[in-house]
Amino acid sequence: MASDVRFWWDPMCPWAWITSRWVNEVARQTGLDVEWRFISLGLLNEHRNYDTDFPAGYVAGHGSGLKLLRVAAAIREAEGPERMGALYTQFGGDVHVRGRRAEIVDHYEDGFPDYLRSVGIEEQYVAEANNPAWDDLLRAEKDEALALTGPDVGTPIIAYRRDSVEQAFFGPVIARVPTREEAVPIWDAVWRLATFDGFAELKRSLRSRPDVASSLALES
Hints:
The protein is of the alpha+beta class. The chain has helices at 14-30, 41-44, 50-53, 58-79, 84-96, 101-105, 113-118, 123-126, 135-149, 180-194; strands at residues 5-9, 34-38, 157-162, 165-170.
């Protein structure tokens, strides 16, 4: 059965994290079926020169995301997709909310085995962080997302299915997580727009800084 929504995630992106917590809350309240798909920012940008195109530290940040997704891909291959939402909640929460980003990024070259073990990743999956054999699968899921949206987009990417028709867009990019009371009304507005077959784009370049701490309100 096709899911209502497909959400492509990289655990290092704060914008995707904020949007995902909103989608997660909507799913909790409404029973929305969300399929959590992979999009590695490292692979999305692998054609670019990190020395000239990004500030310092992006190699380690994007590299950490890639390695966390390799672990997630190995788990999904062995067990099915059921753990993907919980894994994103764990990895993203540690990166953006619980102050463990440096612990992960500082050890990205060795695949951060101590971190993975500390959050309950089974031993048979720990070494997969440094296994590039998963990268073809991750590229394929990245290409799948871009085939739906077109190139030159980032994360989050969401695909919406209505009446057997699927349409996907980059965004919505939001700077804070909606409250429990706001979550579903905002979703209903986005759903109606995203599933209108004439909708193309809604965008502005001005942004507030991502308020990742706003996701804490939904954990209480």
